[in-house]
Amino acid sequence: PTAAFVGASWVALGLGASVYFIGLANAEMLLAEKGYFLAVFLLGLFAAISVQKAVRDRAEDVPVTGAYLGVAWAMLLAALTLMSIGLWNADLLLSEKGFYGIGFAMSLFAVVAVQKNVRDLAAFRSIHPDPAPLERPGLLGD
C-alpha cells in the first residue's frame, strides 16, 4: 500500500473513533449507557478485524476453522445489530444518533483498511527486508 493510503486509513480510524468518543464523553446519558455504546464499539472493531483477517487467511490458504469464521461474522453482525437497537432506543436527537452511527461505520471501515495495510506491509517487508544502514546509498557520503 502507498504511504497516502496507509496515512488516510489511520486518519479515518482516528477521526471516526475520536468523534465517537468525544460525543460519548459529552453525551448526557447514564454511565451504563455510555458503557454499552463503548462496549459495542469495541466489539465491532475487534469483530471487523477478525472477519477481515479470517477471510484473507482463507484466500491465502492459511488454515481458518469454519467455527472461528462463523463466530467472527456473528460478532460483527451482533455489534451492528446492538448499535442499531441501542441508537433506535436511545433518548437522543436524530442528529446525535446519526453522529454515532457515522462514527461507528467510519471506524469499522477504517479499522479493516488499517489491518489490511499492516498485513500488506508486513508481507512486503518479509519479502523485501530493509538493507543494513551502512549498505544504504548516500549514507556515508557516497
Q: Radius of gyration in whole Å, from Cα?
A: 20 Å
Mean pLDDT across residues = 89
Low-confidence spans: pLDDT under 50, at least 5 residues?
A: none
One letter per element, helices H and strands E, the order comes to HHHH
Percent of sequence in beta strands? under 5%
How many E strands? 0
Protein described:
The chain is mainly alpha-helical. The chain is 78% helix and 0% strand. It has 4 helices and no strands. It has helices at residues 3-26, 31-59, 66-89, 94-127. The longest helix is centred in the last third of the chain and has 34 residues, at 94-127. The mean pLDDT is 89.
Brief summary of the model shown:
With 142 residues, the chain is mostly helical. It contains 4 helices and no strands. Helices cover 78% and strands 0% of the residues.
Could you list some keywords that capture this structure?
4 helices, 142 residues, mainly alpha, single chain, 78% helix
What's the topology here?
Layout: H1 3-26, H2 31-59, H3 66-89, H4 94-127
Helix pairs in contact: 1-4, 2-3, 2-4, 3-4
